[in-house]
Write a structure and sequence with these properties.
The complex is a heterodimer. Helices cover 70% and strands 0% of the residues of chain A. By secondary structure, chain A is mainly alpha-helical. By secondary structure, chain B is α+β, with helices and mostly antiparallel strands. The N and C termini of chain B lie far apart (96 Å). The chains are: A mainly alpha, B alpha+beta.
């Protein structure tokens, strides 16, 4: 007998990919129905418990927390910068100069925004290396690694779109080169290039599109994924879980414990 | 026997299943429509970009055996023994503006070091293609016009303007 659509869906729900994305199991028992709500970030934001162990400095060096810190600084400095910046060809460069040399504390805010952006990219990579070398991408955290990769891309896109906004020579040619790289995509490359710039060359449309991406779309996307990212850390057993350590590390700690006992 | 019964029941739609399917079906159609309209919205129908046709002025502005860069329009006007012709000054690698190096007699790109001959031929990469030749002609006032949107075959007889 041929399988029905429902049976295919049931099979899909049993796959490793599905189970890594949706933590609650399938079924219609009271428990499963409660879990379906409790284990959904949009329906139940706060985790039911937090281990004190996962807050220890040794587990993470707080690289993820520091990344969040730079993101918050970028939001806090970016919003005041928007008050003096017009995303239009005649004004953008002059506004940037005004922010740097005329507006009170403008130089401080702009430089803080710039240095935090650099720091955020550095910290995202450091965080990623840390997670990789500690094996913290293993089951049940595979999906959180995937969300982390999405957040890495969003971070790089935020840097890239912000780079055009001063509208100076450096910005103009960097975006010309970068958007031409996008047109190297097979078949749809030219279309992507056209949609990204809103035209055939880096011009008024491109400046406005990059501004909207930089100030609205990408930050909202980042907040959306950061919410899931943080919530998954807690749901997946916290930052520090012995079971997901590499076997070699476990063996090493066992040897060390044995040596201590022998003394 | 039980299986048979099950099959019969499964083939019959209950009122609830019917409305679920109807609802999901309408939502899917609406989603596809939204995606199509969003794509159309993102693609500008009118572009306020400079015209591809550039007036390069009177030909006698350009001395024989000279290469002149029009940096604002991204083209070279070259007056060679065979006549006037125009090259795109936009590097075929990633779109930087190239420059004419008088002392070396070559066109060079400042971004990634591509080099071209005076007739657009590639000397070395990373540029994948030579600089394209653009259509040139004289208008009724005797001005040299260049159409940046039309490529012409390099070194072909019709690709030059003779005055």
């Amino acid at each position: 007998m041929a399988k029905t659509v429902d049976q295919y869906f049931d099979d899909l729900q049993q796959t490793r990919v599905w189970r890594s994305i949706f933590r609650s199991g399938t079924g219609s028992s009271t428990l499963k129905r409660a879990l379906a709500i409790q284990q959904n970030v949009f329906l139940h934001l706060f985790s039911t418990k937090v281990r004190t162990r996962m807050l220890s400095f040794s587990a993470t060096w707080y690289l993820g927390t520091l990344t969040l810190g730079t993101f918050l600084i970028l939001v806090a400095t970016g919003i005041p910068l928007m008050l003096y910046y017009h995303p239009s060809v005649p004004q953008a460069y002059a506004d940037t100069k005004d922010l740097q040399f005329v507006v009170s504390s403008g130089m401080f805010l702009r430089n803080l925004h710039r240095w935090s952006a650099h720091a955020m990219v550095f910290l995202v990579f450091a965080h990623m290396f840390k997670v990789f070398y500690r094996g913290a991408y293993r089951t049940p955290r595979e999906f959180n690694w995937v969300i982390g990769v999405v957040l890495l891309l969003i971070t790089l896109l935020l840097s890239y779109t912000g780079y055009l906004l001063p509208w100076d020579q450096l910005a103009y040619w960097a975006i010309t080169v970068g958007s031409n790289i996008a047109s190297a995509v097979p078949l749809v490359g030219e279309k992507i290039h056209f949609l990204l710039l809103g035209g055939n060359a880096v011009n008024a449309n491109a400046l406005l599109r990059f501004y909207v991406l930089h100030c609205m779309i990408l930050p909202l996307a980042a907040i959306f994924f950061v919410a899931i990212h943080f919530w998954r850390i807690r749901k997946d057993g916290g930052l520090y879980s012995h079971a997901s350590e590499p076997a070699t590390l476990r063996a090493a700690s066992k040897d060390a414990a044995a040596a201590t006992e022998a003394q | 026997m039980a299986e048979e019964k099950k099959g019969e029941l499964g083939s019959e739609l209950s009122r609830r299943q019917f409305f679920t399917k109807l609802g999901l079906g309408s939502l899917s159609i609406a989603a596809v429509g939204t995606a199509a309209f969003s794509y159309q919205y993102l693609e500008p129908n009118v572009l306020y970009e400079p015209s591809p046709v550039v007036n390069a002025g009177k030909p006698d502005r350009y001395p024989l055996d000279s290469v002149t860069l029009d940096v604002n329009n991204g083209i070279y006007i070259i007056h060679s023994q065979e006549g006037y012709f125009s090259l795109s000054a936009v590097c075929t690698h990633l779109g930087c503006m190239t420059a004419w190096k008088q002392e070396l007699g070559i066109i060079a790109c400042p971004c990634h070091g591509s080099k071209f001959e005076q007739n657009g031929k590639k000397i070395e990469g990373p540029a994948p293609k030579p600089l394209p030749w653009k259509r040139v002609w004289l208008n009724d006032d005797g001005d040299l016009l260049v159409d940046r949107s039309t490529d012409v075959p390099p070194l072909a007889r019709d690709s030059f303007v003779r005055v």
